[in-house]
Amino acid sequence: MRRFLPTALAMAALFGATAPAQADVDALPLEDIKTFSQVFEQVRQTYVDPVDDKTLFDNAMKGMVSKLDPHSAYLDAEAYRDLKEATSGEFAGIGIQVGEKRGAIVVIAPIDETPAARQGVQPGDRILAIGDTSTEGMTLQDAITRMRGDEGTELTLTLESASGSHAEASPRTLTFTREIIQEESVSERTLAPGYGYIRISRFQKRTADEFDRALERLKNDKEPLQGLVLDLRNNPGGLLDSAVTTADEFLEGGLIVYTKGRLPEHRSRFTADAAHAVPERTPVVVLVNAGTASAAEIVAGALKDHQRAIIMGEPTFGKGSVQTVMPLSNGSALKLTTARYFTPDGHSIQATGIVPDIGVQRGTLNINESERLQVRERSLENHLINASSNRTETAPASELAQKDYPLGEALNLLRGLNVWGARAKGHSSD
């Protein structure tokens, strides 16, 4: 028996419209709803392949929201779960980072202390099958979704080693028990004695705490912290609260960011408190590029406006809008743009981004080996010795700073600031 779609009046009630007699500018237009119902019915009845009603409704909602702006979206239950995992930094899986290489799904690296690491999964291992399903022609996102699941459930992978100790036994099948995996969003290292480097890959729930721990490790290094590089390149953003808390680590007070939206609850001001983790006199360089977006731009903009850091690199992405995630009754969610970001000085980030104080193009640093062969006075036989020399060699930069040109330039700038500061201090004491 044919099932008819609700009448236009019933559809209006379904979508929350008021009765036609009510002269309300916010009432849904019943004629348009009637047209929508006609299109819906025609697709149901005459499209070449049967399509269930849920799929049609999902597609209609996705289309309704996707045309508003690039960042608003209707999220089905699976997409909503992925979003929550991305912002929390936690998911149930086996702990491997995967990528695609020449059409194959390969392991980039296992995460330490996870099921994958404990069973000897190695970088470069090719994943031939997930469970009983071959990965031939499988997309990377599909593979990631299949490998994740509920905590305590089992996952079987068939792996082929490119080389190494497993080569003679390849392919091999391993069974794992999924665990809660925590992704770290902050990493740190020493660029040169006294000069630290902290990279934030995205702003998740625990990012500010991870930043604190990374900074403490740098402070406890052999040399006092004389300068810090904060790397926000290719950071797509994340949680607003996390970005605000991280920016607060550098500032003694003042406005960090404010938002403007149509509704009062979407108009907010976020300020720094007196406590800060980064020493006030420590020079800071923030590295940005075209992949620095949203929450990462908030941090860069706040530090720039407060003149707390020198921003170096390329103009940022320019995502200056706020998305609010609204859970829906069926397990899905609506991600809707509800406000715009503004830096402390009142600049909108939207479409313009953060313009760096010093422009540096991305690239790598190639050292000219021939320069090391140049003849100098000290190279000559029987040259006179400088008995009063107090010449000191500059400590070499880390391999990372040597290979990453913008990072190397940031380190050079920090060193220059300290040299200039020391000379200025010596001059003022005369």
TrEMBL record:
What domain of life does the native source organism fall in? Bacteria
Signal peptide region = 1-23
Occurrences of domain PDZ (ranges): 80-148
Q: Which UniProt keywords apply?
A: Hydrolase, Protease, Serine protease, Signal
Keyword Ribosomal protein carried by entry: no
Q: Which InterPro entries match?
A: ClpP/crotonase-like_dom_sf (IPR029045), CtpA/B_N (IPR055210), PDZ (IPR001478), PDZ_6 (IPR041489), PDZ_sf (IPR036034), Peptidase_S41A (IPR004447), Tail-specific_protease (IPR005151)
Among PANTHER family, the record links this protein to: CARBOXY-TERMINAL PROCESSING PROTEASE CTPA (PTHR32060:SF30), TAIL-SPECIFIC PROTEASE (PTHR32060)
Q: Which family does it belong to?
A: Belongs to the peptidase S41A family.
Protein's UniProt name: S41 family peptidase
Q: Which organism is it from?
A: Larsenimonas suaedae
